[in-house]
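$ run holo --ligand "2-acetamido-2-deoxy-beta-D-glucopyranose" --emit tokens
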Amino acid sequence: MKVITASSLVLLFALVFLATHSSSQQIDPLLPICKTVGGGSMYVGIDFCLSALGSDKRSHSTQGYRDLSIIAVDLLTANVTSTAAKIDGLLQKGGGDATTTTIKCLQSCQALYKDIAERQPACAAAVKKGSFKEAQASLQKSASAAKECEAGFGKSRVASPLTVEDDDAFKLAKLADGLLDYAA
Ligand SMILES: *[C@@H]1O[C@H](CO)[C@@H](O)[C@H](O)[C@H]1NC(C)=O
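-- output --
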């Protein structure tokens, strides 16, 4: 019995070692790109870049900066669409718990996110036709709009219900912008 136990332990350790060893060999193909774009960036960060781009299946088959920037632009569109819906919902609840100040801030965010959403189709088209500067100008406006939404709550000294959304939109716009710096 003792022999069997000992040898099964050895086998177990061997398996665990192999599993750990082989998974650490599997380097995320997005890593070099995210190091380039997110590594020195005070805005994006490597982890955000990896998890955002990695969340889209298309990233597994493309490692080109231009294609990845299209993915980031699409992620921003999806994000902004859902944030706009969240803002509409919060405003519809209206009165409720929200103070007049919060409602005013939300209304300003509603307009800002509407602008971002409206810019997105032209932004994606610009990337596809190679007008990177045009796309980058659009993305920079959108990053600022997300910042502006968040700052509105701060200035009015009320809690922001959109901190996560504003942060995601800002970072996705910066990520797409950063990828386009390297696109050809
Ligand atoms: C928004 O983007 C973030 C970062 O990529 C992601 O974690 C989140 O799931 C996205 N939300 C939507 C609704 O797309």
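-- notes --
Residues 52, 55, 75, 78-79, 82, 168, 172 surround 2-acetamido-2-deoxy-beta-D-glucopyranose (CB under 6 Å).
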